[in-house]
Structures are given as structure tokens and as C-alpha cells.
Specification:
Elements (H helix, E strand, L loop, with lengths): L3 H6 L7 E2 L2 E2 L1 E2 L10 H14 L9 H21 L7 E4 L2 H12 L8 E5 L8 H10 L2 E5 L9 H7 L4 E7 L11 H10 L3 E5 L11 H4 L3 E5 L10 E5 L1 H6 L10 E4 L4 E3 L13 H17 L1 H19 L5 E4 L8 E6 L4 H10 L2 E2 L1 E3 L4 H7 L4 E5 L6 H18 L1
Parallel strand pairs: 3-15, 5-6, 5-7, 7-8, 8-9
Antiparallel strand pairs: 1-2, 4-10, 9-10, 11-12, 13-14, 14-17, 16-17
Bound molecules: ligand 7TS.
């Protein structure tokens, strides 16, 4: 079991007061808080080894390069990628997805099909729509049921030899549904399609094994796993990364440049044009180390308890409805209270120190499916406690009294 007091002491922000009340941070789906080791890794980089990477012969540049590449290696082993050069640093999930959709513009033909799930964040919808506009490919949607689970028989029926790529999140940000991605990966491959997994909401809760999954692409953001904002990872199978054209042109991504012709660098540099977020990339490695020290078994156990307890306590509130009741779900509770707008609840409970997200959670098609304007979303991390859930429930009850 986790020593929760010890864990909480790692996160300086958790002792803050907000509006005069102790902070209860339940917006982990948007971004996680950062432990002191990660904050220290960023300042240590700037204090001790700041230099540009992959170019200088001087000592600091070599130290910075070593630290950056060591971090790539940590992430490679964390997700069990076969090669370090299959692990690309990005600025986040959104960047990773756009890199892939940009590459597929060179591959897709009019009439080719892209399957996207009904549970996606806008960043895993809009780039694919833009790709369809560019290429004449067609976007088809894998539907979901009232529990917020994707319907696998419909998925099977949509797959055909026209399907060129499938894109689906590992875990839904708005509802917490854990999707059957292993099944979906195998089925996509049966028709010769590639598959991208948006792992943004999964990596805070589990350790993906990209070789066992056999996915073609797996993307995530660093800031949701205790790492800095502006960092992320795109894992791609070597063969796919070799096949896709570069996303951005610039320094670092070339082999030779002349005005007649430019040749591109080997992986991973082909996709890493320009000076990257060096401090962030290094601190992301520190964040991954930290999460592993806490241990994903411990994380899952704590979050399961919070999910069960939070669900039970919230359902005590009259008129409260939970959206997203999948059999497999993670520590996210999206809810509404009859007759009250989610924004009003969010605003009042913020005054009581409770941080939740309200609105459509960048997943408007899900809100349209349930015919609601949005929800109140409490998303728990391993450093949250049942006492904090009690505070939230009391605050929601108070808001309900004030608003009805
Ligand atoms: N995909 C999923 C499943 C997400 O949850 C998010 C961010 C993204 C992609 C985009 O990640 P970014 O780091 O590139 O912005 N989700 C949320 C959220 O649920 N609340 O705020 C951001």
C-alpha cells in the first residue's frame, strides 16, 4: 500500500490553500501535479548543464545531449519499445497526432477510410478531418453505447480493405472508459490497416507495452504523468517512421542540405526539427522514474479505491447522474445534477477549494450523444484521498442547496 502522506509530501502544490480552503485537486485528467524531483530536474538542468544538444563538441553540450538521450532511453524501456529511435520527443499528444496525420497525407488516396472512435478528444478528431479534406479519404465513426463503451460488433463491421488507419484512445478523458485496444489492434491488422493509440489518459494509470500491444503508433503527453507541460512522446514502429515524410523542416532533421536537394537525417532526428524542449525532455525522464518508484500496482490500487468510494458517495446525492459506467473504467467520474448547469456547480465548489473540470472536456460528440451541454468531471490521481472526496461531496451538496 502507498504511504499517502509521504507521497503527498512530494508535491509542494498540494499544501496550498485556494480561496482560503485547502486545495482539493481533482482535475488530474487535464494535467497532473508535479513532484519536487521533477521541479528540481528542470532547475538543475538550467543551473548546471544548459546547452544546445546534438551539435556542440563542448562539454556542456555533451552533458545536455547525454541527459536528453538518457531520458529517451528511460521512456523506451518504460513503454518497452524495441528501439530508442522509435521514441520521438514531441510537445504533447496533439503534436504527436498531427505528426502522424501529416505523414498519412502522403499515403492516403480518395476513398480510403479512416476509423475514429466516438469517444475521442478533439485532438484525435480534428487532425483526421483535416487529413480527409487534404486527401479525399473518408472518416467513419466507431459508435458507443449508453455506458460509454465502444461497440465492437460495429467496429468489426466497419473494418474492410478500404480501412487504412484506425485511431482510438486507450482511455476516454471524458468518461474514463478503458477501451479494448488489444482486440482493436489485432482486428485492424487483419485488414492491413495501421492503428494509432492515443494514450494521453492511460499513461497516468498504467504502463503500456507497445511491443505486446503491437500498435503502430502510441502517443501521450508528459504533463499528465507528473512531467512538464510542452513535453510528449510519439512511439512509432520503425517501419512506419521510415515510411512517413518529416513533419517539420529545419535544423537537426537533415543529413545534407543544398539548394538543389536536401536529404533527411535518420530516426529519430528526422522528426525532431529545431531546438527541442531539452529541460522538459530530461525532466520527463525523471517523472517516469518517479511514477515507477511509486509503482503502477500501487497507483492502480489507490485509484480503484478512490473510484469506488467516489462513485458510492456521489450517488448519495439526489438527482445526480454519472455519465460513463463502463465495466472497465479508470478513476474519472463525470456527472451532472438534475436541473443545474455543470458550470454553476464548478464555480461554487471552486470557492470551497475544489478543482474539477466542467464543460465538454474537448469531447463535444460525447456530450451530443448524451444530449447534455457538459458534465462536472472529477479525475483522481494516486495522491488523492477519500477525505478529499468527502470534501468534494459536501461542497457539491452545498452548491446544490444554493442553486435549487
Ligand atoms: N487525447 C486525450 C485522450 C486527452 O485527454 C487529451 C487532453 C489530449 C489528447 C490532448 O493532450 P495535449 O496534452 O496535447 O493537450 N485532455 C484534457 C482533458 O481531459 N482536460 O484537459 C485536457
Amino acid at each position: 500500500m502507498l504511504d499517502i502522506n509521504k507521497i503527498r509530501a512530494d508535491f509542494p502544490i498540494l499544501t496550498q490553500k485556494v480561496n482560503g480552503k485547502p486545495l482539493v485537486y481533482f482535475d488530474n485528467g487535464a494535467t497532473s501535479q508535479k513532484p519536487q524531483v521533477v521541479i528540481d530536474a528542470i532547475s538543475k538542468y538550467y543551473q548546471e548543464i544548459n546547452a544546445n544538444i546534438h551539435r556542440g563538441v563542448h562539454t556542456l553540450s555533451q552533458l545536455a545531449t547525454d541527459a536528453y538521450e538518457t531520458s529517451r532511453g528511460k521512456i523506451q524501456s518504460h513503454i518497452n519499445a524495441k528501439f530508442a529511435h522509435e521514441v520521438l520527443f514531441t510537445s504533447g499528444t496533439t503534436h504527436g497526432i498531427n505528426l502522424v496525420t501529416n505523414g498519412f497525407a502522403a499515403i492516403l488516396k480518395p476513398g480510403d477510410e479512416i476509423l475514429v472512435s466516438a469517444l475521442e478528444h478533439h485532438s484525435n478528431i480534428v487532425p483526421w478531418q483535416m487529413l480527409c479534406e487534404k486527401t479525399g479519404a473518408v472518416l467513419r465513426v466507431i459508435p458507443m453505447n449508453q455506458e460509454g463503451e465502444l461497440i465492437m460488433s460495429e467496429y468489426d463491421a466497419l473494418l474492410s480493405n478500404k480501412t487504412k488507419i484506425v485511431t482510438v484512445n486507450h482511455i476516454s478523458n471524458a468518461l474514463g472508459t478503458v477501451n479494448p485496444i488489444k482486440y482493436m489492434i489485432d482486428k485492424a491488422h487483419e485488414v492491413g490497416a495501421a492503428i494509432l493509440i492515443d494514450g494521453a489518459q492511460a499513461v497516468p494509470h498504467l504502463k503500456p507495452d507497445v511491443q505486446e500491444l503491437d500498435c503502430d503508433f502510441y502517443v501521450f503527453s508528459g504533463h499528465k504523468i507528473c512531467g512538464p507541460t510542452g513535453t510528449g512522446i510519439l512511439y512509432g514502429k520503425e517501419a512506419w517512421l521510415n515510411k512517413l515524410p518529416p513533419y517539420q523542416g529545419g535544423g537537426e532533421m537533415i543529413k545534407e542540405v543544398s539548394f538543389e536537394k536536401t536529404t533527411y537525417a535518420e530516426l529519430p532526428h528526422k522528426f525532431e526539427a529545431g531546438t527541442p524542449n531539452i529541460a522538459g525532455g530530461i525532466a520527463l525522464g525523471t517523472a517516469v522514474d518517479y511514477m515507477n518508484e511509486v509503482g503502477f500496482n500501487n497507483i492502480q490500487q489507490q485509484e480503484k479505491e478512490l473510484l469506488d468510494y467516489g462513485t458510492k458517495r456521489l450517488l448519495e446525492i439526489e438527482g445526480l447522474k454519472i455519465f460513463g459506467t463502463a465495466k472497465e473504467k479508470t478513476s474519472v467520474i463525470s456527472f451532472n445534477i438534475e436541473g443545474i448547469h455543470p458550470y454553476d456547480i464548478g464555480t461554487i465548489i471552486d470557492k470551497l477549494g475544489i478543482a474539477v473540470r466542467t464543460g465538454h472536456h474537448c469531447a463535444q460528440p460525447i456530450m451530443t450523444f448524451f444530449n447534455i451541454p457538459g458534465t462536472i468531471r472529477a479525475s483522481f490521481a494516486f495522491y488523492n484521498t477519500k477525505e478529499e472526496i468527502d470534501l468534494m461531496v459536501a461542497a457539491v451538496k452545498k452548491a446544490q442547496l444554493m442553486l435549487s
